[in-house]
């Protein structure tokens, strides 16, 4: 009996050790990888300088000091962001910058959990803690997150707020508040209000607006001159400022410019494409929501937001990789080769960022290079086109996942 009891205790200890040590080891790997990434933290230095300038009572738009890392960069964000960045101004950069990297890395865990808890295909695959951490590491080494860390950006933190607001089944906060806060830091997250509109969650829409307006009003009281300047001037000239080359800008207008369009042709084609993207986003997001596919709906919404933004750096496409992973997981769970191939291609495109392999000057791109350099946009347009087609085809909502779901397979694989 004593031997059997000892063996039972030993087995329990081993199982407990695996449950504790495996996640702990992967957490250390997560931190080690993030710490070892190459970094050029010019963006976080702009955040720090903006907050520092705000605390000194100067204009963050006309009196920003020169960054040690990025040179004379403009402050392009709403003035309320400088208020929220104040902690970066109160601690040395040698501490603040690594803390942002750590926060970005750790934010991947609740991001993965948000997708897992809202996707039946991911719920089983990500049931164990060590698998969740492994998925976070996979996101970490993909281009959008790795490049976010390289520049010292806050994309992961903002998209975590968006994902939690949209995917959490029973949030402890007023739904919509997190998107309102995120939009007060960068305007782009405001586009995710479409998700709430199509769910007819008008309270969340109102909460997003109130959260945004509250932070904006507080900032007007704290920095009235900068607030007036931003909302009457700077916000309309985001694309005219010298803040980087065109290679990684994945917006509609930047993409068409890289393909050789200029002047009136660029304006007309860009405007028509933006209108088409908005219409497809409305239809596609609505269809995914009707089918109960919240992660897919969020991915469709995100694809449109990134395409129509005036500036859409590829490191801002944080939600693209989880969206492709949902397709891949669907293929695995259903043993569907089409979905496995499609999801695998999507993951590879977002993970590897082929546009960075192209010559730095898009004007010299060959046709194959133009295709490879536009893979982010092509993948996003394909997702929008197929999901909106399903809505226009007026096919009945998909049945619960009790077996084969050919309709959804078509939507994801296409």
Automatic annotation (TrEMBL):
Membrane topology: Multi-pass membrane protein
Alphabetical keyword list: Cell membrane, Membrane, Transferase, Transmembrane, Transmembrane helix
Transmembrane domains' residue ranges: 20-38, 89-113, 125-142, 176-198, 204-223, 265-284, 339-358, 370-389
Compartments where found: Cell membrane
Chief location bin: membrane
One MF annotation (Gene Ontology) recorded for this entry: hexosyltransferase activity
Region named Disordered: 394-414
GO CC terms in record: plasma membrane
Family of this protein: Belongs to the glycosyltransferase 87 family.
Protein name: DUF2029 domain-containing protein
The species this protein was found in: Amycolatopsis alkalitolerans
Organism lineage: Bacteria, Bacillati, Actinomycetota, Actinomycetes, Pseudonocardiales
